Amino acid sequence: MDRPSRGGGFSERLSLASLAQVDPERRPRVDPRSLGVGIVHLGIGAFHRAHQAVFTEDAVAAAGGDWGICGVTQRSRDVLEQLGPQDGLYSVLEHGGSDTGTDTGLRVVGAVRDLLFAEEEGERLTASIAAPATRIVTLTVTEKGYRHDPATGRLRLADPGVAADLAGRAPRTVVGQLVRGLQARRSADAGPITLLSCDNLPANGAVLRDLVADFCAALPTAEGEQLAEWIAESVRFPSSMVDRIVPATTDDDRVEAAKLLGLDDRGVVVTEPFRQWVVEDDFAAGRPAWDAVGVVLTADVAPYEAMKLRLLNGSHSTLAYLGALAGHAHVADAMRDEGIAAVVAHLMADDVAPTLAVPDCFDVAAYQRELLDRFRNTALRHRTVQIAMDGTQKLPQRLLGTIADRLAAGARPRLACLGVAAWMRYVSTAQAEDGSPLPVDDPLAGRLGELTAAADTPAAVADALLSLQEVFGPELPADPVFRELVVDGLERLTAEGVAAATRDAIR
Ligand code: CS2
After folding, report:
1. How far apart are the first and last CA of the chain?
2. Residue 11: inside a domain, yes or no?
3. Which residues form the Mannitol dehydrogenase N-terminal domain (predicted)?
4. Ligand 1: which residue has its CA nearest to atom 13?
5. What is the CATH number of the domain that holds 246?
């Protein structure tokens, strides 16, 4: 008998056995039992489950193919505990709506057919990349998962994890796992394969290809050279732009999903109705019919990537730092703050839009309006501190590219520089204006603390942080206009606070 459990759900879990109890309209669009694995996905977090897995299930429903997903989790067992007992099934809860109301949809996705915990099942991971049935490896491992220097695009060979993987342990870094898997694939003569990066990095496919090449070049020559040759012939690295806002799931979301399902689902992910995927059509061994279900397959992803990273993610980070400093817990709360909302609208229109080479027929003004609406979606509880994490890994592609392009054009990108200043204020104070603590969750958190500890004026804080070459590169910090705008923004945020600084910025 179903009775409410912890969190108000139901005691019976979602699984293949209980699926018959779910409203037929909400069930997977393909029979999960009949779906073989063709894709290994590294980083099976909420984003993948709400994005590529949904597109993939739809593509199989439209055109068939054994494109089930083996989802790999890197460090945390949580996903295994959520999805393992559920036979990989989970629901996607869609929340549309803004100030004018909400509308909710829920569907169960069955595309994830296998799960693997990389830390404990290294051999099985290598074997699944080497399996002939696997034809694509997709990745959402976050910016920091690449362990590269964004300024040079090179693998950080001195990174202890990379060095240990090169020395031959069961690989723990993403690039190490891929290369060892490819090595096994070559030995097994299992044929060509595609590695498809789905992380928010510009030219993510080319970046991944170079990092794989760097890893091979650092192996003993006899081992690395032949492998690199085989990779050049047999492996493709298309780039892709991914977009869907997927906040961390809350207990309220789980309760809501349980009510709609009549079952307990520990793997539910929550998202917006919008989803977009633009993929470079360069596959070594086939792909799902993603083009039949709205994915844009194209020869050149770069203009879409720049547009999305600079307009959406650049705005997101700016909203997150200004919003968190001003005490707004969620993106939609920050959007209700008139000063912050105006800064974001002007950032897009004045600083970012002039830098974009938008694809033909693309209405970039409409895209900006749509973004502002998406940010205003009050039904999504997207925490500002979630977006604020890993700033050192995100700033280059989100804000610094815009700034460099505008400076080169002789412009003064004040709003993008205010975004950088807000990041500086956030990481150097680690507290909101009301004194409440803010987490500085960043792989360089230690360095950020050391650099700013003794800096006692906004200019000193800015100079200390601008010395981070792996973030700012060598040229930008030497640009007097850039430094002036960042210091000015930081001085205003420090002396006057977010409300006055945002008001001044849009005057
Ligand atoms: C966000 C992204 O957490 C973040 O940094 O900016 O995850 C954003 O929600 C997605 O890129 C939207 O496609």
Report:
1. 62
2. no
3. 38-291
4. 243
5. 3.40.50.720
- 392's CB contacts (< 8 A; 6+ apart) are 442, 443, 444, 448, 468, 470, 471
CATH number at residue 497: 1.10.1040.10
Q: Distance from the CA of 199 to the center of ligand 1, in angstroms?
A: 10
pLDDT of residue 441: 98
- What number of residues does the chain have? 507
Any ligand 1 atom below 6 A from CB of 201: no
Q: CA-to-CA distance for 309 and 326, rounded, in angstroms?
A: 24
**What residues make up the domain containing 351?**
302-505
Among residues 239, 401, 406, which one has the least CA distance to residue 313? 401
With a 6 A CB cut-off, is 398 part of the ligand 1 pocket? Answer: no
Looking at the fold, whether 210 and 341 belong to one and the same domain comes out as no
Other C-beta atoms closer than 10 Å to the C-beta of 412 total 15
pLDDT score, position 362: 85
Question: 471 near 395, Cβ under 8 Å?
Answer: yes
- Kindly give the number of the ligand 1 atom that is closest to the alpha carbon of 390: 5
Task: Return the pLDDT at 98.
Answer: 53
Q: Report the residue among 197, 245, 308 best suited for mutation to probe ligand 1: largest number of ligand atoms under 8 A from its CB.
A: 245
Q: Is the CB of 414 under 6 A from ligand 1?
A: no
- 313 Cα: distance to centroid of ligand 1 (angstroms): 6
Q: Quick one: which H or E segment has residue 106? A: strand 101-109
Rounded Cα distance, 249 and 46, in Å: 8
**Pocket perturbation via mutation, ligand 1, pick of 313, 315, 382 by most ligand atoms within 8 A of CB:** 313
pLDDT confidence of residue 5: 47
Protein residue with its CA nearest to atom 6 in ligand 1: 313
User: 3-class SS at 444?
Assistant: coil
Final residue belonging to a domain, choices 285, 319, 342: 285
Q: What is the CA radius of gyration of the chain?
A: 23
Q: Is the CB of 156 under 6 A from ligand 1?
A: no
Distance in Å, CA 200 to ligand 1 centroid = 8
Query: Within the chain, which residues score under 70 in pLDDT?
Result: 1-9, 98-102
Query: What is the position in ligand 1's atom list of the atom closest to the CA of 276?
Result: 13
Six token digits for residue 461: 């804080």
Question: Does 316 contact ligand 1 (Cβ within 6 A)?
Answer: yes
The answer to whether 22 touches 263, Cβ cutoff 8 Å, is yes
As a dihedral over the C-alpha atoms of residue 77, residue 82, residue 86, residue 92, rounded to 10 degrees, the angle is -130
